[in-house]
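Long-time lurker. I teach an intro course on protein structure, and each term I like to show students one example going from raw sequence to a predicted 3D structure in C-alpha cell notation. This year I'd like something fresh instead of my usual example. Would anyone be willing to generate the C-alpha cells for the chain below so I can use it in lecture? Attribution to the forum is fine with me.
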Amino acid sequence: MKDETRGQEDAAQDAEACAEALESLDQIALAEIAFDDSGVDVQDEPEAEAQSDDQDADDVEPAEDEADHEDTESEAGNQPESDTGEETVLLDSLPAEDSLTRELPGLGSAPTMDETIAMGDIPLPSVPSAREAEVRHRKMSPKRRNLMVAGVVAVALVAGGAGYAAWNGYQQEQAATVAANAHTMMSVQIGVHAAGLDCSAGSKIPVQVSGQDSDGSSVSETLYVDEHGRGIKLLPGDYTLSIAASPIASDGTVYTVPTTKAQVTIKSDGQDLSAQATFKLKVPSADTVTDDQIDAAAKYAEEGGASSAAAAKILQQAAITRRDAAANAVSASEAQSARDADARHKATNLYQLDIPVEWYGKVATWQNGSTLCIYLAGDSDTPIVTLVAAREGESFTPDEGDTVLGAANLGNGYTVYASGPVYPYVVPQTINGRTQDPVSTYPMDTAIELVELTTGNRYTYSQIKNVLVGKDGKADAATKLETDYLAQILLPSIKAQD
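-- Reply from a regular --
Happy to contribute to a lecture. Here you go:
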C-alpha cells in the first residue's frame, strides 16, 4: 500500500512537470487557440477551490445562483483580466448535454453527489510571457527541467523517426525496383546485315548467347533474331553473342556465317546494342555451299528459326535446289569452256597455240605444215594473221602487202613469225577511196569488225579513221595498235610442240 501511494505521488509530480513544460512554450500565442464563434477563454475560478469541505447539499443552490450572478456581470462587460493583462473570455451558450460533470472536492463521503459545471466555468491555463517563462525556468527544479528536456527530445526523436522511416521506405522501394528489374527479361536489339533476307518468309538468324546474368547464373542458349536484329530477351547481365548458323532465305539462299563475337552488357529494356554487336552475313556463290552448311541452317530453322518443322524442311529443300542448280550451271559452263578451249587450241608439227578468246567464233584457220593462217570467219580471202616457222639464221619475208607484226622464239632452233595487213590503217584508207573498188573489197561492217579484231576494241573505227590515221597516209600509229595487241593476246600462247 505504501509503495502504491509513492507511485501515485511520482506520477502526479511527472504530470505536473509536463504541464509546466507546456506552459513555458512561449511560442504559443493566445490567438492560435481557436474555438467557434461562441468560444471564450477561461481563467482560473477561485470560488471552486474556496468551497469548504463542510458545505452540505443546501449550499449547492446558492453557489449556482452566485455563478449565475457572475455570468450576468460578465455579460455586462465587467470581466476580470488575466495575469498577463490579456482579455479573458468565458465559454457560454453551450447546450446542457455538452456540460462537464465532475465530483466536487472533499465530497468523498457523498459519492452520489456530483456538481454539473457549465463549459464556460472551466478555466484554461494562461500563457506566461517570455520573462515569466524565463523566471520559471530558473526556479524550476533540476528534476522538472530534465523531464521537460526529455519531452522535447522525445518529440524530436519521434519527428526524426518519421523522417527516417520515410527515407528508409524510399530506399526500400528503390531497392525493390532494382531487384525487380534484375529479374525482368529485357528486350534488346543487335545489328545484322543479310542481303535479301526476309524472316517472315525465310528462317530467323540463330544467335548463340553465353555469359552470366545479374543473379550470377551461367547462361548458354540459342536465341533467334529477325533481319532487323530484334528477338533477344535476357535478364540484365554480361554476355557474349555470336552467329550459330546461317538462316535460309525463301529462295534457298544460305549465307556465310561470320566468325566474330561481341561482348555486351544488358542494363535496360529496349536497349540498342547494334554499336557493340553487328554481324554481316555475306551471300557466297551458290555452287560453293556445302551440304554441312545447309544441314546446320536447317537444324536451327527447325529448332526455332522457322514457324514449324514443316516450314524448315521446305526451306532446306529450297537451299538444296538452289545449290544444285548453281553447281550444274557451273559444271555446264566449265564443260563448254573445255570444248571451246579445245576448239581454240591449234597445233602444227613444230608449234601449238590458242586462238584468243576475243577471236573465238569470229575467225577460222587453215594450216599447211608449219604454216597456220587465221582468217575472218566465212572469208578465207581476208587473213588476219599468218604464222610461219623459220630456222634460226634464216630470213623471213612476208607476203606482198603484209607487215611483220611480231615473232615468238620456240627455243628449239625455230622462230615463229606473225604477219598480215595492218587493218587499222588499210581499212580507213580503203574507205577513203585511196584504193581501187574499196566497197567490194571491204564493206563497212567488215571494215569495222577487222578493226575491232586487230585492236581488241580499244578504239572505235571512227577514232582510228579520223584521229590515228586521218588522210595523211601515215600508218605508224595504226601499225603500233595492232602489233601491241597481238603481242598481248596471241604471241604469248605460241609454244614449241611437245
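Some talking points for your students: The chain is about 40% helix and 20% strand. The longest helix spans residues 142-182.
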